[in-house]
Amino acid sequence: MKTITLTGMMGAGKSTIAKILAKKLNIKPIDIDSLIEQNEGEKISEIFSKKGEKYFREIEKNTIDNIFTCENLVISLGGGALENNETREFLLTNSNVIYLQTSPEIIFERIKSNTERPLLCGNMSIEKISEILEKREKNYQTATYKITTDNKTPDQIAEEIIGVL
Ligand code: S3P
To answer: Which ligand 1 atom sits nearest the alpha carbon of residue 83?
Structure first.
């Protein structure tokens, strides 16, 4: 089985579902944001505030480029990773990319009290989430498979992914 890459907006459940999928398929889960935090020794929010989004996007791209080995993985991306054309094409060629499609209302309910999302810091609203989603939808839609997640449990979503692969 090819490496599986999970994409979708903040709060779509990428990291949670990657862990469940990894267990079910007995392959290793890799969370790109956690790996970045580990390598940089700082939280994503600190990287954004101290070094800026441009720096974050560079290390995000490098981290993804370096993660591919001969071993198959379940990768959970940060919500903006597919915005980079090279990364998107690379992942589409080398993995099965799954778009976890979630409505702005559900995303808002899930992440409204979370302060670790720099792009929504000071503007946590359904409107802001919709605005970001609208800009990204075209790239998310390039995914190999799309799975809607509203009103489904993480386990149901993981089973649905296994079903389409
Ligand atoms: C981002 C999403 C975050 C993290 C960073 C930027 C984005 O990851 O990579 O804050 O651009 O949507 P999650 O999607 O896991 O929240």
So the answer is: 11
